[in-house]
């Protein structure tokens, strides 16, 4: 299936859990080194993180030497509130353009959309491979946990934005925490135009069925709400990574989703 003109690259989506002082045994300070270790161990070309606050994003950036990142805080468009950051291997890719929009009827300004509880964003970039000059769009988002209408409308808005931007019909990655189960309306909306890497992976997906663990180390992980969607790209491997802390606690309340991609010539 791999032709000599195809190339593979790896992408990861990871809700790293915001630094919440009430987490106690699951505090950011006990988890942060293990989160960085995951990135170093699997070494994806692109990492989309959700929930990271500015100091978390900066910590990861300071430790990961080979990555730069794009992203802003959702509460002010600069650094306040949670980011949907995209880290990228800066030796391999350069950013051609990037931006963030809000999941609302007024996407160009800081806003809360529809029945959502909080500001929600999508950060994206157009990346160019430094050697072969191939370009790829990468989108990273985090849908609202409360607003049912907001999740559907967010799906529609992101697809609209993808269609507006992607005038060269190039490869697209959309990843994130969608707070939506596989059989839900937001998921079906996205699947009208993009493919779920879990469904199209050439090799059988690895790891637990779900991605949300709620920091419960003993329960089976069934709830799949984190996804990597693709267009004009094939998926070779798909994995929900269930690495743990030394005491068997989870590293975050979500598992990272990792996909090996085949970018078509």
Q: How would you describe this structure to a colleague?
A:
- The chain is an alpha+beta fold and 265 residues long.
- It has a single domain (7-263), classed as Deoxyribonuclease I, Chain A (4-Layer Sandwich), CATH 3.60.10.10.
- The protein is 20% helix and 29% strand.
- The strands form two sheets. Strands 3-4-2-1-12-11 form a six-stranded mixed sheet. It has a six-stranded mixed sheet with strand order 5-6-7-8-10-9.
- α1 links the parallel β1 and β2.
- α3 (148-165) runs parallel beside α4 (185-191).
- It starts with 6 loop residues before the first strand and ends with a strand.
- The model has no long low-confidence stretch (mean pLDDT 96).
- Residues 12-254 form the Endonuclease/exonuclease/phosphatase domain.
- GO terms for molecular function: 3'-5'-RNA exonuclease activity.
- InterPro entries: CCR4/nocturin_mRNA_transcr, Endo/exonu/phosph_ase_sf, Endo/exonuclease/phosphatase.
- This is Endonuclease/exonuclease/phosphatase domain-containing protein.
């Amino acid at each position: 299936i791999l032709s000599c003109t195809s190339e593979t690259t790896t992408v990861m989506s990871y809700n790293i859990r915001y630094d919440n002082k009430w987490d106690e045994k699951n505090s950011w300070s006990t988890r942060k080194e293990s989160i960085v270790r995951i990135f170093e161990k699997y070494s994806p070309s692109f990492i989309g993180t959700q929930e990271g606050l500015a100091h978390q994003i900066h910590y990861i950036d300071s430790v990961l030497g080979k990555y730069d990142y794009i992203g802003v805080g959702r509460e002010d468009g600069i650094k306040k509130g949670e980011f949907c950051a995209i880290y990228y291997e800066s030796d391999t890719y350069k950013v051609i353009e990037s931006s963030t929009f809000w999941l609302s009827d007024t996407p160009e300004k800081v806003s809360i959309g529809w029945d959502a509880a909080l500001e929600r964003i999508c950060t994206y970039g157009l990346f160019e491979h430094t050697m072969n000059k191939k370009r790829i769009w990468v989108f990273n988002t985090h849908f609202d946990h409360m607003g049912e209408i907001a999740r559907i409308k967010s799906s529609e808005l992101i697809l609209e934005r993808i269609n507006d931007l992607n005038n060269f019909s190039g490869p697209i990655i959309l990843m994130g925490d969608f707070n939506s189960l596989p059989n839900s309306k937001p998921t079906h909306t996205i699947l009208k135009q993009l493919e779920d890497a879990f469904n199209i992976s050439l090799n059988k997906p690895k790891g637990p069925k779900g991605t949300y663990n709620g920091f419960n180390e003993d329960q089976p992980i069934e709830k799949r709400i984190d996804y990597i969607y693709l267009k004009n790209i094939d998926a070779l491997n798909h994995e929900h990574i269930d690495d743990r802390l030394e005491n068997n606690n989870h590293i975050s309340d979500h598992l990272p989703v990792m996909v090996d991609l085949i970018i078509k010539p």
